[in-house]
User: Fold these one by one.
Assistant:
Number 1:
Amino acid sequence: MNNRTYGQNCGLARALDILGDRWTLLILRDLGMGPRRYKDLAEGLPGLGTNLLASRLKGLEEAGLIERTVLPPPTPVAAYALTGIGEELRPALGLLAAWGFRHGAPFDAADMTRAEWLVQGLVARAEPDAVDRFGGVVQINVGDESAWIGPSPDGVRLRPGAAPTLPKISLNSDISTLAALLTNELDVADAVESGALTVEGDDGELQSFLRAFSLASTG
């Protein structure tokens, strides 16, 4: 990807030779939600200049982590997507996100926030066997953003927008509440009682969801 290397026969060092540049992991994070146009990536990464974005995309493409694709109709335009090798990084990125929620700087309402970034941390904490037992789709709506989580042959699928099938559970909240739930600063029962979180679905399915995705439990 670049001419810099740690020069170490260590898997972590070799990975950082490819992934260690600023913005690289965030580009991969955003592509983890599915194919994105260059314009969408640029808008989602303010502070990243267009020349540097182009350079990072070129490097990731040369490393085999991303590839160019075409979005399906009704908007058949050029986009970037993770390759199979890039998809292998998804669990590691999610675990880093979950670690950051626990040990990074506190949530700052002044910082740019997207619901999909928070949900990626949720997915990383999912227990695969419990997800299989839950076996359904979860719709998460946060303000004007939405995303859905569902099972896939490779574990858990996370995509933006409305779920393609009827969800077992739908969660409706705001950014601050979702962040507080993910960091265990707020209990689900308290969030529901205050009206900050509404849940559509029966209580049994909610409990299964909480067990599968390790969200702050109802007690």
Note: The first helix runs from residue 11 to 19.
Number 2:
Amino acid sequence: MTFPSATARLFLFLFNVIFLATGTAIGVTAILIELSFSQHSIFVQEKLTSPPILVAISCLVISLVSIFGCCGVIKESRCILYTFSVLICAVFILEVVAGVFAYQQAGVMKDSLKSKMKELQYDYNKINETIVKRSWDVLQYDFQCCGIEKAEEWTEILHSSSLPHSCCGELPIDRTCTIKDASKLGCITLFEKFLKSKMVIVGGIAVSIGGIQLLCSMGSCLLARHLNKQYEVV
């Protein structure tokens, strides 16, 4: 099937618009996901935050590559267009890596979370660790939970029958929070479920949009080849 040169260039330009749009969508998604658990980031190991960061980097690269592709279309440079397709393939690989890594981390994050939360639990009442105290309180208020797996953990750690007030979210501030009033839900299960849902979103979007970009890259190669044949005929 043959295309007029102008039609081929139009398709190439549309492909670049798609690249830019998908790159923006990925970037916005990554930022929103990063912000959604930023206030709880103290409990998250650095490797669990890598997928959103990788996706954001992909977004930046896609934007630059899209501009590069537009230059190729305007200049009708076959060399730039082939290079553009290769770069898109490289971005696709990066997105697949981010997606696979996100799914992998979603499956093994519980042990990592538990270890970090246990470490920070012992710092709750330390004078120089007010950030830890605030983070635990925000986590327990937000998820209406108490402790890592059960409220009784706090009595052992604080050596008191009085628990952090955040364990009793609906209790008036002037009343002491005790086991009786505390939430019976541990935080780790709820927090893990929350993080897993975000990781799955990152992985799904990265792989699916990457697939669209790969198809567009193949189309760019075919159209660049078509243009090449037209120039050879001329």
Note: The radius of gyration is 25 Å.
